[in-house]
Amino acid sequence: MTVTNQSQQTQAGAPDTQVTNETGSSLFPTYARYPLSLIKGKGSYLWDDKGNKYLDFVSGLAVTNLGHAPDKIVNKVKEQLDELWHVSNLFTIPGQEQAAKLLTANTCADAVFFCNSGAEANEAAIKLARRYQQKVLGKGKFEIITFKQSFHGRTLATLTATGQDKVKEGFLPLPEGFVHVPLHDIPALEAAITPHTAAIMLELILAEGGIHVVDPEFLRKVKALCEEHGLLLIMDEVQTGMGRTGKLFAHQHYDVEPDIFTSAKGIGSGFPVGAMLGKGYLRDAFTPGSHATTFGGTPLAMAAVNATIETIIEEELPKRAQQMGDYLIESLRKELEGISFVTEVRGRGLIVGIACKGPVGDIITAGQNRGFLFVNAGPEVIRFLPNLYVTTEEIDTAVALIKTLIEEHVAANA
Ligand SMILES: *Cc1c(COP(=O)(O)O)cnc(C)c1O
């Protein structure tokens, strides 16, 4: 029997009664979903089930960095589909070796672990940091310092690492060993370091936290504290990686290298993949059996990853992201100047925030009705994440639309 009633009381072990919500969905209501069913995508555009076309400045939240259904990646994945999808990591997987070589050749990392999501990559980073401190250095260090407003994932460890209380409600007890300090506050960071501290972990742009770019001088001081106290520096590049900010990874804008960094969203062009990358001295902290995942680095996933990274490097897409990002930010600053509802346009490359004086939810919905998709970063920041092939014409369209949408929002709320 199906009963559509949200307030239906059920007990553990009660008879077999299905309860769905008002929309008739049988999914857990973990998302406040927009009433849009997107069924086809190509390049910068998406189509819904009614045939409406949308300019997409969400990109699956920084996932489809090469646009929707990019031919090069689609072809490689199709070829691999006919060869071999999956083998156990008990066997050598050539595509995985190749992807690791590509990543280590183009970054400061020397070793890679492949998994399936951003949270899982961060979980691996946390485990590697603890294990290095405990097994290799023989110190009892376990604590990770992270930053307020940060976002690191939804597993128990990564939601504890996340510097936002709302993701933790109702999930007690949380794992031990995480403390949070405000970003750009060196005295608070120094005060948080104890003999138990194993690592400092941060995003180079607080993305979910409102598009705040980390200051280079702050990062230098963080690195100096790590060296002074024997801490590892972990950078969460799940959203900032894969060319989006104007470099393959955002830390390459800085003169500070991480000991460990993570990647996920853009690395497989939409195929679910995560990666945890580390320096050579950390390699032997993991030994056979100390960490694993069934679906990490399968031949099918690696076909997507190799094609994605090769394309980004061969076509110099980070450079393109930088140029298009500069153009987007400049255009937004110019066109939105004088609208007092907008307080700041900020970001780097093609991760851009428009900070506003009030909630932006209505503006997002109005955009959907005009065929323009974008999201927020916190309640009062509009976030633009176009793909790396975005054109100046598409940017001009987006800037003109957002100006109109904001002006209409201001007029409607006057
Ligand atoms: C999205 C995100 C994560 C979590 O990635 P999932 O694939 O959703 O687990 C972690 N860190 C940052 C910075 C992210 O943007």
UniProtKB/TrEMBL annotation:
Indicate where the modification N6-(pyridoxal phosphate)lysine is found in the sequence: K265
Reactions performed catalytically: N(2)-acetyl-L-ornithine + 2-oxoglutarate = N-acetyl-L-glutamate 5-semialdehyde + L-glutamate
Spell out the PROSITE patterns in the cross-references: AA_TRANSFER_CLASS_3
Keyword Cell inner membrane found: no
Which keywords label this protein?
Answer: Amino-acid biosynthesis, Aminotransferase, Arginine biosynthesis, Cytoplasm, Pyridoxal phosphate, Transferase
Q: How is the cofactor bound?
A: Binds 1 pyridoxal phosphate per subunit.
Gene Ontology CC annotation, any one: cytoplasm
Q: Name one GO biological process term.
A: L-arginine biosynthetic process
Binding-site residues, pyridoxal 5'-phosphate: G118, A119, F151, D236, E237, V238, Q239, T294
Q: Where are the transmembrane segments?
A: none
The Swiss-Prot or TrEMBL record lists the needed cofactor(s) as: pyridoxal 5'-phosphate
Identify the EC number(s).
2.6.1.11
List, in alphabetical order, the Gene Ontology terms for molecular function in this entry: identical protein binding; N2-acetyl-L-ornithine:2-oxoglutarate 5-aminotransferase activity; pyridoxal phosphate binding
Q: In which pathway does it act?
A: Amino-acid biosynthesis; L-arginine biosynthesis; N(2)-acetyl-L-ornithine from L-glutamate: step 4/4
Supply any other comment. Answer: May also have succinyldiaminopimelate aminotransferase activity, thus carrying out the corresponding step in lysine biosynthesis.
Against HAMAP family, the record matches this protein to: ArgD_aminotrans_3 (MF_01107)
**Subunit structure comment from the entry:** Homodimer.
Q: What is this protein called?
A: Acetylornithine aminotransferase
> Which species does this protein come from?
Paenibacillus urinalis
Q: Which gene encodes it?
A: argD
